C-alpha cells in the first residue's frame, strides 16, 4: 500500500462580517466569513470537503441553552 503525505498544516485568518453590524437578540442576521492564508494574505476560495461539507459552524448561546450545528 503506497504511503501518502499528510496535508500541509497552515494558519488562517478569519474575518467575520454581520449584517446588521450591531446584533439584536431574536432578530435575523446574515453572517459572512472571509478566510485568508496567514503567510500570503490571499483569500481562500476553495476548500476540501470533509464529512460532506466544506465548512462546519457551531453556534452556541452564552448560557449554553441554544446550540446549532
How is the topology of this model organized?
Layout: E1 12-19, E2 30-37, E3 59-60, E4 67-68
Antiparallel strand pairs: 1-2, 3-4
Strand order of the largest sheet: 1-2
> What is the 3D shape?
extended
List the quaternary state of the chains: single chain
**Which regions contain 5 or more consecutive residues with pLDDT less than 50?**
none
Distance between the termini: 36 Å
Helix content: under 10%
Order of helices and strands: EEEE
For the secondary structure, the number of strands is 4
Given the helix and strand composition, which structural class is it? mainly beta
Q: Whole-number average pLDDT?
A: 84
H/I helix tally: 0
Largest sheet descriptor: 2 strands, antiparallel
Report the sheet-strand fraction: 25-35%
Tell me the Rg in angstroms.
17 Å
